[in-house]
Request: fold
Amino acid sequence: MDAQSRGRAENIDPADQWVLNPNTGEYELRLTPSAPQSAVPRPRRSAPRGANGAARGRTATPQAPGRGVPPQRRRRGAPEEPLPGRRGRRPVQKKSKAKKVLLWTGGTMAFVLVAAAGAGYLYIKHLNDNITSVADDGASTGGFSKGKAINILLIGTDKRTGKGNDKYGDKNSVGHADTTILLHVSKDRSNATALSIPRDLITDIPDCPTTQADGSQKVIAGTSNVRFNTSLGQDDRTPSCVARTVTELTGIKPDNFMVADFNAVKTLTSAVGGVDVCLGKDINDPDSHLNLKKGMRHIEGETALAFVRTRHAVGFGGDLSRIGLQQQFLSALMRKLKSNSTLTDPTKMISVAEAGTKALTVDANLDSIGKLKDLGLELGKLNPKNLTFTTIPVLDNPADGKVKKTVILNPSKAPQVFDAIKNDVSFTAVKEQKKKETAAVAARLKGPKSAASDVRVRILNGGAQQGSAQAELAYLQNDAGVLKSSNDGNADAQLSKTTLEYGPDQADQARRLAAILGLSGSAMKPGKSVTNDQGLPAITLTLGKDFPGAGESFTAATKAPDVDTKTTADKVECAK
Reply:
């Protein structure tokens, strides 16, 4: 509707129809007249009228002589105007530039909102159609959950499909797990850890049930002592095989996984308008085609791909050095995605949505724009300074001899890293780690302890794997010296956490057993004594779902271990 047909011919400034709502801070379109109107009313459906000309059911309101409409109401908060004909009436002012600007921006915004409302469904359907998904084959938890910690497996493949990618050599590659990152997001979303897994890490790949591209089912036999990157592509392995291998390696089962190829790097960086990275020296790598001078450099597209592929020209010239570049690149990309230059630019946001849905292959539990949006909202809560990039601690593989080509797990450091992630421990100083026990609960562990030979305990299985109670009994009797112990079968209910219940005069026995098992004070439950199968008073150990295994300590990590390499997403590191 133009100005003549809506307001301007009636002496209404359309800009006046956009009013600032003090409650929201936003301008709103209000069509209720707030300026003098023409004496000729706009056509409208006539209501039945009575004999006196008033609308039936309404009381006619007397009008001022010579006026065809009621007097104009004064805006709330505006100074009272003198009545017509009185001295001091304010002259009519010309429309301000501010109102003209508001007219255009407000009208344009209204048009965009209406257009979006009409096309929203079609655009969401379009984005859904962009998404490529593959079966997770039971290798994931079934999908991330709000209110819980999240583990996302990011798999970068070296498959050369896509325009221009065959020039990088090995154009017939089936696509291996060239770059793999396990992203752990804490339960409270205050921090996250991105754990890089070296492609040349020697590990075991488990048997892998897969859904092939043609829909057929195939179980691919596992292999031992091979490179991690062969968990994808080799022998028709699918991304679910990578997820199974990560679980086997770390003990952490991914909630979801995503696969990105060369094109993902190129299109995503172009969608955000490029990212800024730092070079500590001039780099000219003919293998990756990266040729950049020292200093801060703006990269996107082919140059961004060359940057993340470079390894011979940085560090020690191997894959571990390239991992550092990839972490630097992802940090720069996250900073750009979180910046106002991206979040406030509708064109960029649409480009990111297009590029992301086209470039990524996701598991079947993440195959809609709605699910991706929900995941994005959870990840969006992160502060870049609390996103830590690190790498699985490794050692050179002694089997390689003089020429070091592969690596193995560092047996003393890697398990500590995995344990910290499993227990949701932050690798950054977000805040002092929450104290899991109050002083009263912690005090349960303090005090005299009986000798192990004096502890009488019955063991129940309350949610642990089948056979756990018998296995723990064998450990206590054969290795811990707790001879007066018995396996009393299954508990009445399943528990998420292991408990140790004891009577008023059995605290010293409970403290000894807690020390042997590594149980915390929160696991100790003052209660009643029971009678074991020997007819003697005993305490009760109920194994919950958290049971780590016979002889394994229940003590969970509360502090992140020292790692060889660590950086956070807010810091700009320079490649050397």
